């Protein structure tokens, strides 16, 4: 006696659904600006201010050394594209909000509060670059999905100019 296999289930079929199930919608995109960032590995838990550009087109850092900021002229965390978060390395009083940013490694988690929920990102890498060679296209250029760029100062301090010579940039992609 020959046996035949049953036909494959319909594309919308899910286990436990006799007549197919309605498609499951993706969670709605978060609304509003991001208001908080957490980076557990380096002990960051900070509110976020909205940042802009100066007349030369350079990102203006947060005024509070203990608070990170989000560049409001670009994508918000959770939207397609690179959301840029920036914070100071230190102040005259000591370490600032992103003092340990250069300690992040691939796989570390970054969380951003937006639209009433935590959005999770996973670090994929980092770089340190001279400020006069800042990779603007790499940091601000289009991405296929939601990503984060965390930026602070690094390298040697130039006492004559009163600034660090380098930037540290950490790259992260949305989880899930």
Structure report:
With 176 residues, the protein is an all-beta fold. The protein has a single domain (36-174), classed as Sortase (Sortase, Chain: A, Beta Barrel). The protein contains 1 helix and 10 strands; from the N terminus they run ββββββββαββ. It has one helix spanning 136-140, and strands at 36-39, 44-51, 68-71, 81-86, 90-91, 94-95, 109-114, 117-130, 146-158, 163-174. The strands form 2 sheets. Strands 1-2-3-4-9-10-8-7 form an 8-stranded mixed beta barrel. Strands 5-6 form a two-stranded antiparallel ribbon. A hairpin with a 4-residue loop joins strand 1 and strand 2 (44-51). One of its GO terms (molecular function) is hydrolase activity. This is Peptidase C60 sortase A and B. It comes from Micromonospora lupini str. Lupac 08. Residues 1-10 have a biased composition (Pro residues). Keywords: Hydrolase.
């Amino acid at each position: 006696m020959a046996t035949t296999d049953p036909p494959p289930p319909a594309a919308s079929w899910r286990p436990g659904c006799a007549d197919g199930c309605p498609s499951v919608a993706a969670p709605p995109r978060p609304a509003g600006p991001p208001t908080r960032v957490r980076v557990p590995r380096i002990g960051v838990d900070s509110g976020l201010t909205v940042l802009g550009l100066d007349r030369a087109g350079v990102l203006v850092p947060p005024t509070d050394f203990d608070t990170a900021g989000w560049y409001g002229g670009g994508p918000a965390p959770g939207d397609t594209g690179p959301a840029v978060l920036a914070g100071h390395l230190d102040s005259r009083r000591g370490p600032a909000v992103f003092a340990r940013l250069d300690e992040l490694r691939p796989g570390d988690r970054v969380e951003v509060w937006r639209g009433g929920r935590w959005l999770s990102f996973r670090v994929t890498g980092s770089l340190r670059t001279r400020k006069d060679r800042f990779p603007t296209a790499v940091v601000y250029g289009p991405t296929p999905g939601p990503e984060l760029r965390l930026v602070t100062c690094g390298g040697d301090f130039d006492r004559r100019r009163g600034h660090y010579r380098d930037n540290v940039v950490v790259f992260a992609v949305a989880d899930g």
